[in-house]
Amino acid sequence: MELTKMVSTRTRPFDARLYALDRNTNQFRHRCKALEVYLSLSDDFEALLPFPLTPSTIPPVGLIGLSNYLSSNVRPYLEQYSGIQVRDPAGEIGYYIPHIYVSANDNAVLPGHAALGLPTTVAGIRLFRVGGLVQGTLERPHGTRLLTISARPSTHINVTSSGLTQTVYYSVCHSTPGFDPGRQHTPRLVKWRTSRFLRSDECGHTMSFTGPFSLSYGSSAVKYPVFRIGVDHMILGLYQEYDFRLEEISMF
Hints:
Pfam families: ADC (PF06314). The protein is mainly beta. The chain has one helix and 15 strands, in the order βββββαββββββββββ.
């Protein structure tokens, strides 16, 4: 019997993926806390957007946030993310995520990177409250501050009567060339929809607040991609507590 010569490859085989996200199973994250700042961006963002996404507004709107997932299907972890508000070819508006950091938890890194194409990087992330002050920080390496968000979220914001908010996000997933050395990587745009179910306080008010916010970069941030989101001015700051669910994933 003639043996078939194996073709060498630099990638993992298709039937042994590092991580596979079941698109038929919702991904839950419970008891989440998030500190987010919405911004007007400067002109140096355009090189970050993949085709065919375009800015949804001029001037463009950006999002910089920190989240603490206190309980999730991939164990507790923290996340720092940057987004640019965009419009896709179907006219739907969402946020393209060019940069995202997660705390040291392989179960949080692998799903986002392997299944959604998110450029996840491990970093030191904190989100904490001291009295009326809520602060989130990003460090990489440990002890080197890249980003700080501080807030005094004292003003309640009415979102919806049901406490449900939905948001669309985008990332770029690079498929592997498999066993064909001549086949090139094929980037594909990934689109997913999420739902936040805002928690309520003891008075029945949804946990969504604004107030005085500040955002600052550390001097070392210029060495890292997080600094590439050029900030013109702040529009709105939000502090929210909620349950989170991944509703839908598609590629185009």
